[in-house]
Design goal:
The complex is a heterodimer of chains A (41) and B (142). With 41 residues, chain A is mainly beta. Helices cover 12% and strands 37% of the residues of chain A. Classes of the chains: A mainly beta (41), B alpha+beta (142).
């Protein structure tokens, strides 16, 4: 674990339902726990 | 995933939203969401742009089949982690980042092997610590 206080990368992303938004829109209202998966299921 | 689902209410209470990122196509991601009734938003990143931007590692094929990785995998399964269908580049490792509303990363975990996952309580503790951090610009508990 590291705590770095760096600004998070932001870019337009595609949600599973096909909608596009900027990643930053997800953290504007509340903290997010961004979990990168290796597999589905 | 199962552990995150079980602790969803505690993440809600901590004022945080769990967001998943997969290497699946939007179609694969949608099928996954529907099949498992996933209670979290899911980002589809088949080109692994986010994986790379957040500095997540890849391991070699040899590392992937090494006895130590197999042992760690069995150990992780004994703790309740399951093995799902690989999607995308199987050498790609996972990671977890907590990002505050001001866009700062307040916790990061970059996996060192396929079985390396922080448990949900570790993430909840990190959320609590970030909430009490004066540099967060937030009043503790808000």
């Amino acid at each position: 674990m590291s705590k770095n206080n760096n600004k998070a990368f932001d870019a337009k992303v595609m949600m599973g339902d096909g909608t596009e938004l900027f990643l930053s829109e997800l953290w504007k209202k509340q903290a997010i726990v961004l979990v990168f998966l290796r597999h589905l299921g | 995933m199962a552990q995150l689902r079980q602790k969803k209410q505690r993440f809600d209470q901590a004022g945080a939203q769990v967001v998943l990122v997969s290497m699946g196509t939007p179609e694969e991601s949608a099928a996954f969401e529907m099949k498992f009734n996933i209670p979290f938003p899911l980002i589809s990143d088949p080109k692994r742009q986010l994986y790379q931007a957040f500095g997540l590692k890849q391991i070699s094929g040899l590392e992937l089949i090494s006895p130590s990785v197999a042992f760690k995998g069995l150990l992780a399964m004994s703790k309740g982690h399951t093995i799902g269908m690989p999607v995308g580049d199987i050498r790609q490792l996972s990671g977890v980042f907590i990002i505050n509303p001001d866009g700062r990363i307040v916790y990061s975990h970059v996996a060192s092997d396929p079985s390396d996952h922080p448990d949900p309580d570790t993430l909840l503790n990190a959320l609590k610590a970030a909430d009490q951090d004066p540099s967060s610009g937030k009043e503790p508990g808000n």
